[in-house]
Amino acid sequence: MDATTKKELMKIACKIRMGIIEGTFHAKSGHPGGSLSIAEDLSYLYWREMNVDPKNPKMQNRDRLVLSKGHTAPALYAALALKGFFPESELKNLRHIGSMLQGHPDMKHIPGVDMSTGSLGQGISAACGMALSAKISGDSYRTYSILGDGEIEEGQVWEAAMFASHYKLDNLVAIVDNNNLQIDGTVEEVMSPYPIPEKFAAFGWHVITIDAHNFDEIEKAFEEAKTVKDKPTVIVQKSIKGKGISFMENQVGWHGSAPNAEQYEAALKELRDTLNDLD
């Protein structure tokens, strides 16, 4: 990836992080930690990888994204707003009564959301259905799904993994966000899903491992996925929960805690400084 493109994507990821903080602060609730760890994914998907049109969010042949770890909706909303699906000012209404931006993605009311998610484990099954539908109808769109590493403790994930392999869904890419923390602690302490790559390989998936915050590796992974035939691809990415905000990084307490006013100002200042450094 050339330096100019990489810098632009880094700026977008930073702005997504700013949107996450904006939303969760004004909501006084939400899940910033795991939202911050997928900012690079969303910037690459929406600005480089996926065929989507904010002016026509329901176009038939659009690529689909299912945020299986639906509690990280603040990240998805920030990306959709930045892309132009709805005004960025809406982010301040996150989780407010009457707002279209609910605590979890809602496909009926939010432009750009392809699947309502929140019950962990179920989103990847919906993504499998979308991918199979494209195969049956001969459509060219691709389907992407982002899962949490704690989420893959759910048995339904592995039923979906078996389904995707059985039906040779090479138009499906799953991203497992391995930040090693879930609401109750580390994933090893709660219910270890390790080794993740080997498990997906045993279920018949093509496996790619990357650093979640390295755009060169992200680009290479998605390009590789396009060459894979007759099997689904999973990108297992090592990420940092709370990435981009020093006092939130690798802190399990930020899984489901919103910043207070002082933390909000400190986080935005840090992100603004990062953005300025990229100019």
Shape: globular
The order of strands across the largest sheet is 1-2-3-7-6
Number of helices: 10
Average pLDDT taken over every residue: 98
Q: Count all strands and give the number.
A: 7
The CATH topology comes to: Rossmann fold
What percentage of the residues does DSSP assign to strands (E)?
5-15%
Query: What summary fits the major beta sheet?
Result: 5 strands, parallel
| Secondary-structure arrangement, i.e. CATH architecture | 3-Layer(aba) Sandwich
Low-confidence stretches: none
CATH homologous superfamily identity: Thiamin diphosphate (ThDP)-binding fold, Pyr/PP domains
Distance between the termini: 18 Å
Order of helices and strands: HHHEHHEHEEEHHEHEH
Number of domains: 1
Structure classification: alpha/beta
What portion of residues is helical?
40-55%
Q: Report the CATH C-level class.
A: Alpha Beta
Our Rg estimate from Cα atoms comes to: 17 Å
Written description of the protein model:
- The protein starts with a helix and ends with a helix.
- The protein has a 5-stranded parallel β-sheet with strand order 1-2-3-7-6, with helices on both faces.
- Helix 3 (39-49) packs parallel to helix 4 and helix 3 crosses helix 9 (215-227).
- The radius of gyration is 17 Å and the shape is globular.
- Strand 6, helix 9 and strand 7 form a beta-alpha-beta unit.
- The chain has 279 residues and is of the alpha/beta class.
- It has helices spanning 3-27, 32-36, 39-49, 73-83, 123-137, 155-166, 187-191, 196-202, 215-227, 261-278, and strands spanning 64-67, 143-148, 172-178, 181-182, 185-186, 206-211, 233-238.
- The chain has one domain (3-278): Thiamin diphosphate (ThDP)-binding fold, Pyr/PP domains (Rossmann fold).
- It has 10 helices and 7 strands.
